[in-house]
Amino acid sequence: MDLVLERPLVFFDIESTGLNIVSDGMVELSFVKVFPDTHHETKTWRICPWDYVQQKQRPMDPGASAVNGIKDEDVAGEKKFIEIAEEVIGWIKDSDLAGFNSNKFDLPMLAEEIERVRAYSQSRIDDPKVPEDKKQKARKMLQTLDIDLHSKRMVDVQTIYHFYEPRNLRAAYRFYCGGKDFDNAHSAEADTLATYEVLKGELEMYKTPDEHHEMELKNDVEFLSSAFGRPKNIDYAGRLIRGKDDEPVISFGKHKGKTARQVYETEPSYFAWIENGEFTMDTKRQFAILKERFDKEKKEAMSRPLQGEELDSAIDLLRGKFASDGKLFK
Question: What gap in Å lies between CA 152 and CA 320, rounded to an integer?
Answer without folding.
Answer: 53
